[in-house]
Design brief:
Helix content: 40-55%
Radius of gyration: 23 Å
Shape: globular
Strand content: 5-15%
Largest sheet: 4 strands, mixed
Strand order of the largest sheet: 2-1-9-10
Protein backbone atom coordinates (compact mmCIF):
# COMPACT_ATOMS: atom_id res chain seq x y z
CA UNK A 1 0.00 0.00 0.00
CA UNK A 2 1.35 3.40 -0.93
CA UNK A 3 2.03 5.94 1.80
CA UNK A 4 -0.66 8.18 0.27
CA UNK A 5 -3.31 5.47 0.52
CA UNK A 6 -2.11 4.48 3.98
CA UNK A 7 -2.56 8.05 5.24
CA UNK A 8 -5.85 8.29 3.40
CA UNK A 9 -7.26 5.34 5.31
CA UNK A 10 -5.71 6.15 8.67
CA UNK A 11 -8.28 8.54 10.11
CA UNK A 12 -11.35 6.47 9.27
CA UNK A 13 -9.70 3.23 10.38
CA UNK A 14 -8.55 4.80 13.64
CA UNK A 15 -12.05 6.13 14.26
CA UNK A 16 -13.60 2.70 13.69
CA UNK A 17 -11.08 1.09 16.05
CA UNK A 18 -11.77 3.74 18.67
CA UNK A 19 -15.50 3.02 18.40
CA UNK A 20 -14.79 -0.61 19.28
CA UNK A 21 -16.97 -3.65 18.74
CA UNK A 22 -20.63 -3.24 19.62
CA UNK A 23 -24.08 -3.20 18.10
CA UNK A 24 -23.65 0.07 16.19
CA UNK A 25 -23.42 -0.40 12.43
CA UNK A 26 -19.92 0.47 11.13
CA UNK A 27 -21.71 2.53 8.46
CA UNK A 28 -22.93 4.92 11.18
CA UNK A 29 -19.43 5.16 12.62
CA UNK A 30 -17.93 6.10 9.25
CA UNK A 31 -20.52 8.82 8.84
CA UNK A 32 -19.69 9.83 12.40
CA UNK A 33 -16.03 10.18 11.41
CA UNK A 34 -17.03 12.28 8.39
CA UNK A 35 -19.14 14.54 10.62
CA UNK A 36 -16.33 14.97 13.17
CA UNK A 37 -14.01 16.13 10.38
CA UNK A 38 -16.69 18.38 8.91
CA UNK A 39 -17.41 20.11 12.22
CA UNK A 40 -13.75 20.71 13.03
CA UNK A 41 -12.87 21.98 9.54
CA UNK A 42 -15.68 24.54 9.74
CA UNK A 43 -15.47 27.51 7.32
CA UNK A 44 -11.69 27.52 7.44
CA UNK A 45 -11.77 24.93 4.67
CA UNK A 46 -13.49 25.77 1.40
CA UNK A 47 -13.70 24.86 -2.28
CA UNK A 48 -14.09 27.67 -4.82
CA UNK A 49 -17.12 26.96 -7.02
CA UNK A 50 -17.69 29.65 -9.62
CA UNK A 51 -18.37 32.89 -7.75
CA UNK A 52 -19.25 31.09 -4.52
CA UNK A 53 -17.54 28.77 -2.07
CA UNK A 54 -18.53 25.32 -0.89
CA UNK A 55 -17.82 24.46 2.74
CA UNK A 56 -17.62 20.90 4.11
CA UNK A 57 -20.63 21.25 6.44
CA UNK A 58 -23.28 18.54 6.21
CA UNK A 59 -26.80 17.74 7.38
CA UNK A 60 -26.88 14.01 8.14
CA UNK A 61 -29.81 12.15 9.71
CA UNK A 62 -29.53 8.57 10.97
CA UNK A 63 -32.84 6.80 10.35
CA UNK A 64 -33.81 3.53 12.01
CA UNK A 65 -35.83 1.81 14.67
CA UNK A 66 -35.48 2.86 18.32
CA UNK A 67 -32.98 0.12 19.16
CA UNK A 68 -30.63 0.68 16.20
CA UNK A 69 -28.05 2.52 18.35
CA UNK A 70 -28.27 5.81 16.46
CA UNK A 71 -27.71 7.88 19.61
CA UNK A 72 -24.68 5.78 20.57
CA UNK A 73 -22.98 6.68 17.29
CA UNK A 74 -24.02 10.34 17.53
CA UNK A 75 -22.83 10.69 21.14
CA UNK A 76 -19.42 9.32 20.17
CA UNK A 77 -19.02 12.13 17.63
CA UNK A 78 -19.90 14.72 20.25
CA UNK A 79 -17.45 13.18 22.72
CA UNK A 80 -14.54 13.19 20.29
CA UNK A 81 -15.21 16.68 18.92
CA UNK A 82 -15.38 17.97 22.51
CA UNK A 83 -11.91 16.57 23.18
CA UNK A 84 -10.46 19.18 20.81
CA UNK A 85 -11.95 22.02 22.84
CA UNK A 86 -14.81 22.63 20.40
CA UNK A 87 -17.66 24.38 22.22
CA UNK A 88 -20.17 25.49 19.57
CA UNK A 89 -22.83 22.89 20.24
CA UNK A 90 -26.43 23.90 19.63
CA UNK A 91 -28.86 23.90 22.56
CA UNK A 92 -30.67 20.58 22.93
CA UNK A 93 -34.07 22.32 22.80
CA UNK A 94 -34.68 25.69 21.17
CA UNK A 95 -36.71 27.67 18.62
CA UNK A 96 -35.87 29.31 15.33
CA UNK A 97 -35.35 32.75 16.90
CA UNK A 98 -33.35 31.55 19.87
CA UNK A 99 -31.18 29.34 17.68
CA UNK A 100 -30.47 32.27 15.34
CA UNK A 101 -29.37 34.31 18.36
CA UNK A 102 -27.22 31.42 19.56
CA UNK A 103 -25.64 31.25 16.11
CA UNK A 104 -24.99 34.99 16.13
CA UNK A 105 -23.41 34.76 19.57
CA UNK A 106 -26.14 36.71 21.36
CA UNK A 107 -26.98 35.15 24.69
CA UNK A 108 -29.33 37.70 26.31
CA UNK A 109 -32.85 37.65 24.80
CA UNK A 110 -33.94 40.92 26.42
CA UNK A 111 -33.52 44.40 24.99
CA UNK A 112 -32.35 45.55 21.57
CA UNK A 113 -30.38 42.78 19.87
CA UNK A 114 -28.68 45.08 17.33
CA UNK A 115 -27.32 47.40 20.00
CA UNK A 116 -26.22 44.47 22.11
CA UNK A 117 -24.63 42.78 19.09
CA UNK A 118 -22.72 45.95 18.20
CA UNK A 119 -21.27 46.01 21.72
CA UNK A 120 -20.44 42.32 21.66
CA UNK A 121 -18.84 42.66 18.22
CA UNK A 122 -16.74 45.57 19.46
CA UNK A 123 -15.52 43.48 22.37
CA UNK A 124 -14.92 40.52 20.01
CA UNK A 125 -12.99 42.77 17.61
CA UNK A 126 -10.78 43.97 20.48
CA UNK A 127 -10.10 40.38 21.48
CA UNK A 128 -9.46 39.38 17.85
CA UNK A 129 -6.98 42.24 17.45
CA UNK A 130 -5.28 41.09 20.62
CA UNK A 131 -5.12 37.55 19.21
CA UNK A 132 -3.89 38.78 15.83
CA UNK A 133 -7.07 37.87 13.93
CA UNK A 134 -9.16 39.89 11.49
CA UNK A 135 -12.88 40.50 11.94
CA UNK A 136 -13.56 38.70 8.65
CA UNK A 137 -12.22 35.50 10.21
CA UNK A 138 -14.99 35.40 12.79
CA UNK A 139 -17.28 32.40 12.24
CA UNK A 140 -20.83 32.06 13.52
CA UNK A 141 -20.98 28.30 13.77
CA UNK A 142 -23.07 25.66 15.48
CA UNK A 143 -23.10 21.88 15.60
CA UNK A 144 -26.58 20.43 16.01
CA UNK A 145 -25.82 17.06 17.58
CA UNK A 146 -29.18 15.52 18.46
CA UNK A 147 -29.73 11.86 19.17
CA UNK A 148 -33.45 12.65 19.09
CA UNK A 149 -33.94 15.21 16.35
CA UNK A 150 -37.54 15.80 17.46
CA UNK A 151 -36.28 17.27 20.75
CA UNK A 152 -34.34 19.90 18.82
CA UNK A 153 -36.71 20.74 15.96
CA UNK A 154 -40.03 20.18 17.67
CA UNK A 155 -43.08 19.02 15.73
CA UNK A 156 -44.05 20.34 12.28
CA UNK A 157 -41.87 23.43 12.69
CA UNK A 158 -41.85 24.55 9.05
CA UNK A 159 -40.24 27.94 9.78
CA UNK A 160 -37.33 26.45 11.72
CA UNK A 161 -36.71 23.78 9.07
CA UNK A 162 -36.85 26.41 6.33
CA UNK A 163 -34.31 28.56 8.19
CA UNK A 164 -31.92 25.62 8.48
CA UNK A 165 -32.35 24.92 4.78
CA UNK A 166 -31.48 28.51 3.92
CA UNK A 167 -28.38 28.45 6.13
CA UNK A 168 -26.87 25.28 4.60
CA UNK A 169 -24.88 27.10 1.92
CA UNK A 170 -24.80 30.76 2.96
CA UNK A 171 -21.53 32.48 2.01
CA UNK A 172 -22.20 35.95 3.37
CA UNK A 173 -23.71 37.64 6.40
CA UNK A 174 -27.35 36.83 7.03
CA UNK A 175 -29.84 39.28 8.52
CA UNK A 176 -32.43 37.93 10.97
CA UNK A 177 -35.43 39.57 12.59
CA UNK A 178 -36.71 37.98 15.79
CA UNK A 179 -39.95 39.31 17.24
CA UNK A 180 -38.72 39.56 20.83
CA UNK A 181 -35.23 40.83 20.09
CA UNK A 182 -35.32 42.93 16.93
CA UNK A 183 -32.95 42.69 13.95
CA UNK A 184 -29.40 41.34 14.01
CA UNK A 185 -26.90 39.79 11.63
CA UNK A 186 -25.20 36.41 11.53
CA UNK A 187 -21.64 36.81 10.25
CA UNK A 188 -20.01 33.94 8.34
CA UNK A 189 -22.61 31.36 9.39
CA UNK A 190 -21.93 27.64 9.30
CA UNK A 191 -24.17 24.86 10.61
CA UNK A 192 -23.51 21.14 10.83
CA UNK A 193 -26.29 18.76 11.76
CA UNK A 194 -26.13 15.16 12.92
CA UNK A 195 -29.44 13.84 14.17
CA UNK A 196 -31.29 10.61 14.80
CA UNK A 197 -34.89 9.85 13.96
CA UNK A 198 -37.38 7.03 13.52
CA UNK A 199 -40.14 6.74 10.92
CA UNK A 200 -42.73 7.68 13.54
CA UNK A 201 -40.63 10.60 14.73
CA UNK A 202 -40.09 11.74 11.16
CA UNK A 203 -43.83 11.85 10.51
CA UNK A 204 -44.26 14.19 13.49
CA UNK A 205 -41.08 16.25 13.25
CA UNK A 206 -40.90 16.71 9.49
CA UNK A 207 -44.28 15.69 8.04
CA UNK A 208 -44.45 14.57 4.38
CA UNK A 209 -45.71 17.99 3.28
CA UNK A 210 -42.10 19.14 3.79
CA UNK A 211 -40.69 16.79 1.14
CA UNK A 212 -40.28 19.53 -1.45
CA UNK A 213 -38.99 21.97 1.15
CA UNK A 214 -35.35 23.10 1.09
CA UNK A 215 -34.24 21.58 4.39
CA UNK A 216 -35.02 17.95 3.53
CA UNK A 217 -33.44 18.24 0.09
CA UNK A 218 -30.16 19.18 1.80
CA UNK A 219 -30.18 16.20 4.17
CA UNK A 220 -28.38 12.90 3.69
CA UNK A 221 -30.49 10.13 5.22
CA UNK A 222 -28.38 7.23 6.49
CA UNK A 223 -30.08 3.91 7.09
CA UNK A 224 -29.36 2.56 10.58
CA UNK A 225 -29.88 -1.21 10.41
CA UNK A 226 -30.68 -3.36 13.41
CA UNK A 227 -27.67 -5.09 14.96
CA UNK A 228 -26.67 -8.28 13.13
CA UNK A 229 -25.89 -9.92 16.45
CA UNK A 230 -26.42 -9.07 20.10
CA UNK A 231 -23.36 -7.94 22.05
CA UNK A 232 -24.05 -7.56 25.75
CA UNK A 233 -20.79 -5.78 26.57
CA UNK A 234 -19.25 -3.46 23.92
CA UNK A 235 -15.47 -3.66 23.74
CA UNK A 236 -14.60 0.03 23.86
CA UNK A 237 -11.58 1.46 22.05
CA UNK A 238 -9.27 -1.04 20.38
CA UNK A 239 -6.52 1.57 19.99
CA UNK A 240 -3.37 1.13 22.02
CA UNK A 241 -2.95 4.88 22.08
CA UNK A 242 -5.87 7.27 21.47
CA UNK A 243 -3.34 10.02 20.73
CA UNK A 244 -3.11 8.92 17.09
CA UNK A 245 -6.80 9.68 16.55
CA UNK A 246 -6.71 12.86 18.63
CA UNK A 247 -3.80 14.11 16.51
CA UNK A 248 -5.98 13.74 13.42
CA UNK A 249 -8.81 15.67 15.08
CA UNK A 250 -6.38 18.42 16.06
CA UNK A 251 -5.15 18.53 12.46
CA UNK A 252 -8.72 19.11 11.24
CA UNK A 253 -9.30 21.79 13.88
CA UNK A 254 -6.17 23.68 12.79
CA UNK A 255 -6.46 23.19 9.03
CA UNK A 256 -7.05 26.37 7.04
CA UNK A 257 -7.16 27.11 3.34
CA UNK A 258 -8.69 26.47 -0.05
CA UNK A 259 -9.14 22.95 -1.38
CA UNK A 260 -8.05 22.65 -4.98
CA UNK A 261 -8.80 20.09 -7.67
CA UNK A 262 -6.26 18.09 -9.63
CA UNK A 263 -6.80 18.15 -13.43
CA UNK A 264 -7.42 14.40 -13.41
CA UNK A 265 -9.97 14.64 -10.59
CA UNK A 266 -11.76 17.43 -12.45
CA UNK A 267 -12.25 15.11 -15.42
CA UNK A 268 -13.56 12.34 -13.17
CA UNK A 269 -15.97 14.61 -11.28
CA UNK A 270 -17.24 16.11 -14.53
CA UNK A 271 -17.94 12.60 -15.83
CA UNK A 272 -19.71 11.67 -12.58
CA UNK A 273 -21.86 14.79 -12.74
CA UNK A 274 -22.83 14.29 -16.37
CA UNK A 275 -23.48 10.55 -16.16
CA UNK A 276 -25.13 10.22 -12.74
CA UNK A 277 -28.37 8.29 -13.39
CA UNK A 278 -30.36 9.93 -10.62
CA UNK A 279 -32.55 8.19 -8.04
CA UNK A 280 -35.65 6.28 -9.05
CA UNK A 281 -37.50 7.17 -5.83
CA UNK A 282 -39.52 10.32 -6.56
CA UNK A 283 -39.06 11.51 -2.97
CA UNK A 284 -35.45 12.45 -3.73
CA UNK A 285 -36.11 14.62 -6.77
CA UNK A 286 -35.14 17.81 -4.91
CA UNK A 287 -32.10 16.10 -3.32
CA UNK A 288 -30.79 15.21 -6.79
CA UNK A 289 -30.31 18.88 -7.61
CA UNK A 290 -27.84 19.23 -4.73
CA UNK A 291 -26.13 15.88 -5.06
CA UNK A 292 -23.02 17.26 -6.78
CA UNK A 293 -22.51 19.81 -4.00
CA UNK A 294 -22.75 17.02 -1.43
CA UNK A 295 -20.16 15.08 -3.43
CA UNK A 296 -17.72 17.99 -3.46
CA UNK A 297 -18.11 18.40 0.31
CA UNK A 298 -17.20 14.75 0.78
CA UNK A 299 -14.28 15.07 -1.64
CA UNK A 300 -12.89 17.92 0.46
CA UNK A 301 -13.12 15.83 3.62
CA UNK A 302 -11.47 12.84 1.92
CA UNK A 303 -8.60 15.05 0.74
CA UNK A 304 -7.99 16.67 4.13
CA UNK A 305 -8.21 13.26 5.81
CA UNK A 306 -5.23 12.37 3.59
CA UNK A 307 -3.55 15.56 4.85
CA UNK A 308 -3.71 17.20 1.43
CA UNK A 309 -5.33 20.34 0.05
CA UNK A 310 -5.80 18.93 -3.46
CA UNK A 311 -8.63 16.55 -4.37
CA UNK A 312 -7.26 13.51 -6.18
CA UNK A 313 -8.94 10.95 -8.43
CA UNK A 314 -8.89 8.53 -5.50
CA UNK A 315 -10.68 11.08 -3.31
CA UNK A 316 -13.36 11.56 -5.96
CA UNK A 317 -13.89 7.80 -6.35
CA UNK A 318 -14.03 7.19 -2.61
CA UNK A 319 -16.46 10.06 -2.02
CA UNK A 320 -18.69 9.03 -4.92
CA UNK A 321 -18.68 5.39 -3.85
CA UNK A 322 -19.57 6.16 -0.25
CA UNK A 323 -22.30 8.57 -1.24
CA UNK A 324 -23.69 6.09 -3.80
CA UNK A 325 -23.77 3.28 -1.23
CA UNK A 326 -25.63 5.57 1.17
CA UNK A 327 -28.06 6.72 -1.51
CA UNK A 328 -28.89 3.12 -2.40
CA UNK A 329 -30.31 2.72 1.12
CA UNK A 330 -31.91 6.16 1.45
CA UNK A 331 -35.35 4.86 0.37
CA UNK A 332 -35.06 2.24 3.10
CA UNK A 333 -33.91 4.92 5.55
CA UNK A 334 -37.10 6.90 4.96
CA UNK A 335 -39.27 3.80 5.06
CA UNK A 336 -42.72 4.63 3.69
CA UNK A 337 -42.44 8.29 4.72
CA UNK A 338 -44.17 10.42 2.11
CA UNK A 339 -45.40 7.34 0.27
CA UNK A 340 -49.15 7.99 0.57
CA UNK A 341 -52.14 7.36 2.81
CA UNK A 342 -51.09 3.79 3.72
CA UNK A 343 -47.61 4.86 4.78
CA UNK A 344 -47.92 3.96 8.49
CA UNK A 345 -49.15 0.45 7.75
CA UNK A 346 -46.74 -0.07 4.87
CA UNK A 347 -43.87 0.97 7.11
CA UNK A 348 -44.96 -1.56 9.75
CA UNK A 349 -44.87 -4.29 7.09
CA UNK A 350 -41.42 -3.29 5.84
CA UNK A 351 -40.02 -3.20 9.38
CA UNK A 352 -40.95 -6.87 9.76
CA UNK A 353 -38.80 -7.68 6.74
CA UNK A 354 -35.95 -5.38 7.76
CA UNK A 355 -35.82 -7.02 11.19
CA UNK A 356 -35.61 -10.52 9.64
CA UNK A 357 -34.48 -10.02 6.04
CA UNK A 358 -33.92 -13.73 5.37
CA UNK A 359 -37.37 -14.89 6.47
CA UNK A 360 -40.11 -15.63 3.90
CA UNK A 361 -43.55 -14.74 5.21
CA UNK A 362 -46.99 -16.08 4.45
CA UNK A 363 -49.70 -13.47 4.15
CA UNK A 364 -51.52 -14.61 7.29
CA UNK A 365 -48.28 -14.59 9.29
CA UNK A 366 -47.55 -11.05 8.17
CA UNK A 367 -51.07 -9.99 9.13
CA UNK A 368 -50.52 -11.37 12.65
CA UNK A 369 -47.37 -9.27 12.94
CA UNK A 370 -48.82 -6.00 11.65
CA UNK A 371 -52.60 -6.03 12.19
CA UNK A 372 -52.45 -3.32 14.86
CA UNK A 373 -51.22 -0.87 12.21
CA UNK A 374 -54.37 -1.24 10.10
CA UNK A 375 -58.04 -0.47 10.60
CA UNK A 376 -59.17 -3.22 8.25
CA UNK A 377 -57.88 -6.24 6.36
CA UNK A 378 -58.61 -4.33 3.16
CA UNK A 379 -56.07 -1.67 4.17
CA UNK A 380 -53.50 -4.41 4.81
CA UNK A 381 -54.11 -6.01 1.41
CA UNK A 382 -53.88 -2.61 -0.30
CA UNK A 383 -50.53 -1.91 1.42
CA UNK A 384 -49.09 -5.30 0.44
CA UNK A 385 -50.21 -4.82 -3.17
CA UNK A 386 -48.58 -1.39 -3.23
CA UNK A 387 -45.28 -2.74 -1.89
CA UNK A 388 -45.29 -5.52 -4.47
CA UNK A 389 -46.00 -3.03 -7.26
CA UNK A 390 -43.16 -0.83 -6.02
CA UNK A 391 -40.88 -3.91 -6.08
CA UNK A 392 -40.03 -3.50 -2.39
CA UNK A 393 -41.44 -6.97 -1.79
CA UNK A 394 -41.53 -10.01 -4.07
CA UNK A 395 -43.50 -13.26 -4.22
CA UNK A 396 -41.64 -16.56 -3.99
CA UNK A 397 -43.71 -19.78 -3.99
CA UNK A 398 -46.61 -18.12 -2.21
CA UNK A 399 -44.39 -16.36 0.34
CA UNK A 400 -43.50 -12.69 0.58
CA UNK A 401 -39.80 -11.85 0.53
CA UNK A 402 -37.76 -8.68 0.79
CA UNK A 403 -36.35 -7.31 -2.45
CA UNK A 404 -32.65 -6.85 -1.85
CA UNK A 405 -31.20 -3.37 -2.07
CA UNK A 406 -29.03 -3.34 -5.15
CA UNK A 407 -25.38 -2.48 -4.65
CA UNK A 408 -24.77 0.48 -6.96
CA UNK A 409 -22.32 -0.02 -9.77
CA UNK A 410 -20.57 2.27 -12.19
CA UNK A 411 -17.25 3.40 -13.55
CA UNK A 412 -16.46 5.44 -10.43
CA UNK A 413 -18.06 3.23 -7.78
CA UNK A 414 -15.76 0.78 -6.00
CA UNK A 415 -17.61 -0.93 -3.08
CA UNK A 416 -14.55 -3.05 -2.26
CA UNK A 417 -12.93 0.12 -0.87
CA UNK A 418 -15.35 -0.09 2.06
CA UNK A 419 -15.50 -3.82 2.75
CA UNK A 420 -14.74 -3.31 6.46
CA UNK A 421 -17.95 -1.27 6.79
CA UNK A 422 -20.25 -3.36 4.62
CA UNK A 423 -19.50 -6.92 5.75
Amino acid sequence: MSEQNKNHNDFFSLYLKYAGVGEVSPILHRWGAIMAASVLLSRRCHFKFGNTRIFPNLYVIFMGESASKKSTAINLVRKLVSKTGYEHFAPSETSKGKFAMHLAGISDVKGNSKERQDLEEALAAMQAEKDGKKKSERISESFICAGELANFLGFSNFDFASFLGDMWDVDEKHMVSYKTAGEFEIVNPLINLLGGNTFEGMMKTLPPEMMGQGFLSRCIFVYAPAAKKKIAFPSGSALQDDKLLLDYLAFFANFSGEINLSPEAKIVLTDIYESWPGMMDHRFKAYAGRRFTQLIKLCCIEAVAARRNVISVQDAIRANTWLSLTEALMPRALGEYGAGRNSMGSNAIMNVFYAKPDVHWKLDQLWEQTSSAFDTMLGFNTAVTGLLSAKKLALDNGHLTLTRALIPHGKYIKPDLFSEYLN
